Every structure is written in C-alpha cells, then in structure tokens.
Model the fold of this input.
Amino acid sequence: MSEIIRFNSDYTEGCHPAILEKLSETNMVQTPGYGEDEYCAEAAGRIKEACKAPEADVHFLVGGTQTNVTVISAALKHYQGVITAQSGHINVHETGALEACGHKCLVLESPDGKLTAVQVAQYTDEHFADESFEHMVQPKMVYISNPTEVGTIYSKAELMELYQVCKERGLYLFMDGARLGYGLMCSKNDMTLEDIAQYTDVFYIGGTKVGALFGEAVVITNDELKQDFRYNIKQRGGMLAKGRLLGVQFMTLFEDNRYFTISAHAARLAEKLKDALAEIGVEFSIASPTNQQFPILEDEVLAQLKEKYSYSYMGRYDEKRSVVRFCTSWATKEENIDSLIADIRSMIEKK
Done:
C-alpha cells in the first residue's frame, strides 16, 4: 500500500533541515536553562531587528494554545474577557483552555473569520452603555489571528483601524500568528512584521507550523504587558528547562531570511492549487489567499481522494458536496501538489 500524501495540516513533518543541523551542532554546548542562554538572546535580537522594534520583549513558548492562554491570562484581571471571532482558535479549538483559566471568550459573528473596528467599537460601547455593565464580563482585549482559521488575512488598513479603536477604548490588541509567515508571504498581503509590531500590543510568530519542531515567539510591544511576564510563563507550564531548544530554532529561522523564504514556498504552492482547481470549475467556500484552501468537492470525488491523500473535512455544503481543507507548508513537495491537481482533474472529467 502506498504512503498517504498528507495535506490535512501544516505540521506533518519535523523541522527544516537547517534547524536539525544547528540542534546537532550545538547539542553538547553547555548553557543556562529556562531561556536565559545565548541562543535565545540571539534569536530575540534577530526577531526585534526583523520587527524594527528594539524596545520589544521577546519570549519563547512551546505551543499555540499554551501561548494564547499565557498571553491573555497575563494581560487580564479575573473579571475581564477577550473579544474574539466565533471561529477564533481560543473559542473553538483549545478545549476551553482560556475559560478554564477564568477568562471568558466574548464572541462576535464573523463569516470571514475577521473582526472589524466597527464591531469592536459597537460591542464595547454597548457594554458600558448598559446600566448593569458591572454585572457582566468586562471586555479588555481583542484577539485576532492572521491568517485566520479560514485562511483570510487582515490588510494593513484594517489592522490600523482595529488598533485605533482599541486605543480609544482601553483595549489590548493581541494577534495570534501561528501561521504568520504564510500570511505575510501570500500575494494579497500588504503588511510587514514592522507594521504588526507597531499596530498591536502583543503578537506571536508561529514556529510549530512554519518550519520549527515546536515553538512560538511572543513579541510584546506594550510596556504595560511586559512586567512579570516570565512569572506567567512559569505558572502556565511554559518555561522550558532546556529553553535553548527554542532559541536555536528561532535563531535559525531568522537567519538569512529563512522564515520568509520557506513561508513563500507554501503560499506559492497553495496559490497554484487554488488556480488550477478554479480553472477546472471547482468552487471554494471562502476566498483564502494563504496556505489553507477550502474547495467544495463532490463526496464521490472525496472518497476516491482519501485512498491517496489526507485532508481536513470541514462540513457538508449540499446534498452531494462537502467543504474540505488542503494545507500546504514549508515542506510541501511541488510534485505532490501536481499529483493532487491531476487526480482531482481526472476524477471530475470522468464524471
């Protein structure tokens, strides 16, 4: 039986070979623990340089859910909550981790996965206009993902508008960047890391999905959120004793523009897949410019594809068709994309 070609996620491989090489090369070097080593310092410096944010604080954690919980719980008091799109990762795919820590997700509808400045302003203003506002969870932070769970991205103008509304209403703006590289390097993007550092209070650069074995780099630009952050990392179980493993990985990702180069590879192949499927008449549930694509395919076609490929099933579209997700990554082979396109074309043409 031939090996399944996996498109169900963007973390099916280990890590970029350069990281593996650097981990091996530095394996026997003695360092301090808990992220206070020279590799973490070097990685933090490279990230601050890439963000053009020399005053930022940079911290390294292991995974996305842990990072979201640590950042949000560190910023909020017990009676405060975080505004999020209904599809937001903290609301849907983290097993209630944030709410288990005592902070409610304040959910807003969003068909494209994005929040707007108007939505945030309206929700916050209505909260404080209610005479019984002290009996309800207070909104204090806005959580966004870029790219979102459905592959859409924020424009620079949209981010600036959100940030302005947050500043006017005393809210923190937090960007989940688990797939940030894939958003930054897609053809529709008009933002840079510098823009994100300027127009958020805190964000993180995803490594787990973008070339690392594991790890996320938190970048804090708002001084209010910097104090005692390491206490929160420790309390949430995120202070890795061998923190050097995180430092080495991000040091390598931010060497020679590697993070952006490998992200561009995934974005290009996703666009190739999207264009080819559109050309043969395949519809998509949402217009995603990033490494996540959501085609609508007949169940009969999907049953045949499953024999050779893995994908994420998103839900039924109509009586005969379903929405699925194909992910590309830094490690996706172009020949596998070509094979997927050819097989879908052949199956559709035979019908």
